[in-house]
């Protein structure tokens, strides 16, 4: 009866009832009900906000895990404009623009047939035999092995080593090694084009040699070693035409060599010319025997009698020789036919025909002295004296 009347009083009374710690009912006036309602509403909103924050946090974590899982399945991007064909589709979106920009310039190298490969192999093997025989005949007391190892670019990842000889496709192959190392980026090429740095400096920085030449020699001997050569006098003329014949754009070489050569070896009749002539350049070499890397003899630069090179490529048959070497050394997935950086003389490439025109003005005794200085280069690589 009491219970019934209590329920009825609660329903009839506009008051709010709560219990204290002793479980005794406490009656609050109805005017406090809005306050407690507001507190309940605010508490509910806090719980909702907390739940939303938790959902947002879980969403961020899930998205992050998905991105990490996707990236872990991709090959790391090398930053190169040219990649192996198998990896090109896996390029990260961050670098997709630079790869797509040059895609139209990439042309796969022509695959040589088995007969073509064998014909080229026979000729290159004959060059090695000739070199070995010439080395025995010369019997040079100086092997120049240390100079060769210091000059060598060793790529153990792709199992190739190259001894650069400047003015013999060196710019092209610096580009190739930049591709192999993954450093032929847009940023690097912009620096090269604006003359902030030379490509060979970038390549040599990345292919840092070991200070211990014995260790370098061990690494080199485990790789496929190659060098590229050219008719010695044609190379000399190419160096002259590129570095000394015209001062414009070559101020460095004019200040370092050209001005002094013209002053010391100036011939009558050339008084109005600032740059040295080809004859004056040859006289400078004969008299001073000072060799810049662009006209230093091959045997002093790459030690062909000290290093057993596996491939001897020649400038005269370079297209065929390069295709053979790239295919035989399994580099076809990396090196494509493309407009790589080349040091092309704006006045034209030096050819045998151009050489013939220049040497018409050179006295025979001077040519004989030049031939004597570069005699080993002629003999080692089977070139005829001019």
Automatic annotation (TrEMBL):
It is an enzyme of class 2 (transferase). The chain crosses the membrane at residues 49-69. Its EC number is 2.8.2.-. Its main location: Golgi. Residues 1-25 are annotated as: Disordered. GO terms for cellular component: Golgi membrane. Signal peptide: none annotated. InterPro entries: Carb_sulfotrans_8-10 (IPR018011), Sulfotransferase (IPR005331). One of its GO terms (biological process) is carbohydrate biosynthetic process. The keyword Transmembrane helix applies. It comes from the Eukaryota. GO terms for molecular function: sulfotransferase activity. It is a single-pass type II membrane protein. Keywords: Carbohydrate metabolism, Glycoprotein, Golgi apparatus, Membrane, Signal-anchor, Transferase, Transmembrane, Transmembrane helix. It is found in: Golgi apparatus membrane. The keyword Membrane applies. Belongs to the sulfotransferase 2 family. This is Carbohydrate sulfotransferase.
């Amino acid at each position: 009866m009491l219970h019934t009347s209590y329920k009825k009083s609660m329903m009839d009374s506009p008051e709010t009832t709560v219990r204290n710690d002793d479980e005794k009912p406490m009656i609050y006036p109805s005017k406090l009900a809005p306050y407690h309602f507001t507190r309940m509403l605010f508490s509910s909103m806090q719980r909702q906000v907390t739940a939303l924050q938790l959902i947002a946090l879980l969403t961020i974590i899930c998205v992050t895990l998905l991105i990490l899982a996707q990236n872990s399945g991709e090959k790391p991007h090398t930053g190169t404009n040219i990649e192996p064909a198998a990896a090109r589709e896996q390029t990260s979106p961050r670098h997709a623009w630079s790869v797509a920009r040059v895609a139209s310039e990439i042309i796969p190298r022509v695959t040589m047939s088995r007969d073509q490969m064998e014909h080229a192999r026979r000729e290159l093997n004959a060059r090695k035999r000739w070199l070995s025989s010439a080395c025995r005949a010369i019997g040079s007391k100086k092997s120049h092995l240390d100079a060769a190892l210091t000059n060598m670019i060793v790529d153990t990842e792709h199992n190739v080593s190259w001894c650069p000889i400047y003015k013999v496709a060196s710019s092209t192959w610096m580009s190739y090694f930049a591709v192999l190392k993954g450093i032929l980026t847009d940023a690097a090429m912009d620096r090269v084009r604006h003359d902030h740095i030379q490509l060979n400096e970038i390549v040599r920085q990345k292919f840092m040699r070991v200070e211990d030449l014995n260790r370098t020699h061990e690494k080199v001997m485990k790789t496929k070693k190659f060098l590229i050569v050219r008719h010695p006098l044609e190379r000399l003329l190419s160096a002259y035409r590129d570095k000394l014949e015209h001062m414009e754009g070559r101020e460095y070489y004019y200040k370092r060599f050209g001005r002094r050569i013209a002053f010391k070896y100036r011939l009558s009749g050339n008084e109005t010319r600032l740059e040295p002539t080809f004859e004056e350049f040859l006289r400078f070499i004969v008299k001073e025997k000072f060799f810049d890397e662009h006209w230093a003899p091959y045997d002093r630069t790459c030690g062909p009698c000290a290093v057993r090179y596996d491939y001897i490529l020649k400038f005269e048959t370079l297209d065929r020789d390069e295709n053979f070497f790239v295919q035989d050394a399994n580099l076809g997935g990396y090196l494509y036919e493309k407009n790589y950086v080349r040091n092309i003389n704006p006045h034209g490439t030096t050819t045998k025909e151009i050489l013939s025109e220049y040497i018409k003005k050179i006295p025979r005794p001077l040519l004989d002295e030049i031939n004597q200085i570069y005699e080993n280069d002629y003999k080692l690589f089977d070139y005829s004296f001019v």
